[in-house]
Each structure stands twice: as structure tokens, then as C-alpha cells.
Amino acid sequence: MRNTAKITTAVLAAGALTLGLGACGSDKDSGSGSAAADTSGPLVVAASPVPHAEILTFVKDNLAKDAGLDLEVKEFTDYVTPNTATEDGSVGANYFQNQPYLDDFNKKNGTHVVPVVTVHLEPLGLYSNKVKSADALKSGATIAVPNDSVNEARALKLLDANGIITLKDGVGNDATPADITKNPKNLKFKELEAAQTPRSLDDVDAAVINGNYAIEADLKPSKDALVLESATDNPYGNFLAVKEGNEDDPRVKKLAKLLTSPEVKKFIEDKYAGSVIASF
């Protein structure tokens, strides 16, 4: 995208495995909090390309200058490096994730990333290039699901909510296929990195795809999904996040206000037509 620095998963893969290696091409020292400490410089925000970086770029191009905010957007195509880069100070904030994912990430990685303001929801959906409805899935069909624990559980709960499978009562954000108690179509599950699920559609019978990756793959969740998450009482809203202690950074406060402005709400409604839903 214009005015952004694209960073591919392939380039980031090695650095994403270890905290302190926030591979975002920063020339600054990578010590903890280094980017956020200098509040006089631009606020660098790590974001998934769609829709997060698009929303941030709208803010940068249309709202930031009048608000006195110098905003820089850096695109990441994975769900790991934005948090490690925020933790080590290579970026000042990130915008790509939901609360269950962040809670799980902090617990597993010892990071201290916290939410600032919730901006939007991207409904998770089931998609297929081979059938036109979930009912048409054949016995023994293979379903691709994200392989990180939170999004896999979210995918299975989507299938459960639509009567495709039945999960064990009370199962939470750690659900796996082992928690399926009823599977009338004897579905098989192929675990893939979330970013790879759209590319699997020609190889599997259907795939559960995160909203941002669906949109990036030119799918329209509101029209193309066989089943789609409900937005009502949905805990998976995506938010602006920072390392704990940086919530009062004046640049962060300005961006939080802009991201929940009427102008951004209209941009989301006009551009995404129900495939992304403003949460404010």
C-alpha cells in the first residue's frame, strides 16, 4: 500500500520466533520501549495489511495532520511479529488482534501488550470453492482451520454454532478437534497458519478464514461465507494495543480518538460493506 512499509512473513519468520528481534526494519536500538519512549517522533504502528493498515492509512491521509499526529504504518503479514515488535519497542503500537488472542499470546510469550481502544470486528467465516452451502459438505470432507490455539477454537465454535459439529459443553478458547463430541459428517480438519487458509481453498473442501485474510483474498465475508460469525456480543473485536505503561503516550491517545471518530466509522461502512463492522 502507499505510504506503508510492507514486510512479508518469509522475511519475518526467523525474527518472529524470539522476543527482542522485532523484525520491522527499525534503525533504532531494539531495547525495551525504545520507540515509545521518544514521544516527539512519529508513532509507528504495526498492522495487518487488510483492513487494519487501510484504516490507519485513511487516518494518516485524512485526519492525523489536523490532530497534530505524525503517524507511520508498517504492515505485517503474520500474527506474531506485531506483538514482539511492540514488546521490544521497535514499534510504538499495533492494530491487528482481539482480546482472547492477546491474552493467549501474553501468557505463552511473557509479553506485556495491552489494549487501548476497540475499533472493529471482522467476522470469521467458512468458505468453499467446491460447495455452495454448509449442508452440501460431503461425508469425510476436509476443513482447513487456523493453527493458533485461539483462532482454531474460534473456528470450531463457529462450526458448532451452525450445527456442523458439536463441541464439549463449556469448552473455551482452548478448544481443539479433540473436544468435538458429535461430527455427523465425519469431517477432517487441516491445521494451517491463519494466513494460509485462503490459499488452501482449492486443496480442501472448505476453510475457516479470518476476516482480514478473507478480504485480502478478494472474498466478501458478508456475501461469500457459507456461515459467518454473529456480531452480537462478539468478544473478538480488534483493537489498538501498546506495551503496558505506554497507554498515556499522547500520540497513542490521539490515534485512539481518531480511530473511533465518525469519519473512520463512515470509512469502514463505505469501504467494507458489512464485511468489517465498526465497534463504536
From TrEMBL:
UniProt-listed Pfam families: Lipoprotein_9
Highest taxon, organism lineage: Bacteria
Localization annotation: Membrane
Keywords: Lipoprotein, Membrane, Palmitate, Signal
Topology within the bilayer: Lipid-anchor
Main location: membrane
SUPFAM superfamilies: Periplasmic binding protein-like II (SSF53850)
Signal peptide coordinates: 1-23
PANTHER family reported in the protein's UniProt record: D-METHIONINE-BINDING LIPOPROTEIN METQ, METHIONINE-BINDING LIPOPROTEIN METQ
Protein name: Lipoprotein
Species this chain originates from: Streptomyces galilaeus
Lineage, top ranks: Bacteria, Bacillati, Actinomycetota, Actinomycetes, Kitasatosporales
